[in-house]
């Protein structure tokens, strides 16, 4: 039977003790879809959208990477992790920008939250940089796509 991990025996919030776990290679990939709409996508030139604030997707990649590295500052009870790698890619499909964040580390706990935070903040940065064009932007389907290296691997089809 599954139970919540961030509660102690008294039912109070607590950080998970990973001291007895084995160090393994941990990876996770998360994705967020940002529906920008045709008004914004008409400004797509090459693989990015140029604005007065700078290139939208390149800026979002930097913001997402910075956020993934600071996940423990944003999400209560997350362990501080030194990431070995964080790769954010942004592709387009019709009116959508698809943000993918792949992270990895050698550690005792997984990096799912780091991947989700990286993808989320990159998506929020796209919204912020494009909102002058339209407020019809929708961030949707932020989800874990896969993870490896823990008790059980996971892959979403």
Automatic annotation (TrEMBL):
<keyword id="KW-0456">Lyase</keyword>
<dbReference type="GO" id="GO:0061798">
    <property type="term" value="F:GTP 3',8'-cyclase activity"/>
</dbReference>
<dbReference type="GO" id="GO:0061799">
    <property type="term" value="F:cyclic pyranopterin monophosphate synthase activity"/>
</dbReference>
<dbReference type="InterPro" id="IPR023045">
    <property type="entry name" value="MoaC"/>
</dbReference>
<dbReference type="Pfam" id="PF01967">
    <property type="entry name" value="MoaC"/>
</dbReference>
<dbReference type="InterPro" id="IPR036522">
    <property type="entry name" value="MoaC_sf"/>
</dbReference>
<keyword id="KW-0501">Molybdenum cofactor biosynthesis</keyword>
<dbReference type="InterPro" id="IPR047594">
    <property type="entry name" value="MoaC_bact/euk"/>
</dbReference>
<dbReference type="InterPro" id="IPR002820">
    <property type="entry name" value="Mopterin_CF_biosynth-C_dom"/>
</dbReference>
<comment type="function">
    <text>Catalyzes the conversion of (8S)-3',8-cyclo-7,8-dihydroguanosine 5'-triphosphate to cyclic pyranopterin monophosphate (cPMP).</text>
</comment>
<protein>
    <recommendedName>
        <fullName>cyclic pyranopterin monophosphate synthase</fullName>
        <ecNumber>4.6.1.17</ecNumber>
    </recommendedName>
</protein>
<dbReference type="GO" id="GO:0006777">
    <property type="term" value="P:Mo-molybdopterin cofactor biosynthetic process"/>
</dbReference>
<feature type="domain" description="Molybdopterin cofactor biosynthesis C (MoaC)">
    <location>
        <begin position="15"/>
        <end position="150"/>
    </location>
</feature>
<comment type="pathway">
    <text>Cofactor biosynthesis; molybdopterin biosynthesis.</text>
</comment>
<dbReference type="InterPro" id="IPR050105">
    <property type="entry name" value="MoCo_biosynth_MoaA/MoaC"/>
</dbReference>
